[in-house]
Amino acid sequence: MVKPTRVTNRIRALRFAHDEMTQADLADRIGVTRQTLIAIEQGRYSPSLEMAFRIARVFKVPLDDVFQYPEET
């Protein structure tokens, strides 16, 4: 069983804020399958650093506006 990532993201909110971009459109723009994007968006998969930057650049926002990692307690 795959352990979910602690990295959270705002991809869905950003897609809707950008003319309701579809998962398929974003996946095409960053060079992955729609299934991979769904897994990232749902927090079941952490993207590579390169892919994370590609996603942020599509939305023209800083990386930490897309992805968050909880503070250590």
TrEMBL record:
Residues 11-66 form the HTH cro/C1-type domain. Keywords: DNA-binding. It comes from the Bacteria. The keyword DNA-binding applies. The keyword Amino-acid biosynthesis does not apply. Coiled coil: none annotated. InterPro entries: Cro/C1-type_HTH (IPR001387), Lambda_DNA-bd_dom_sf (IPR010982). This is Transcriptional regulator. It comes from Asanoa siamensis.
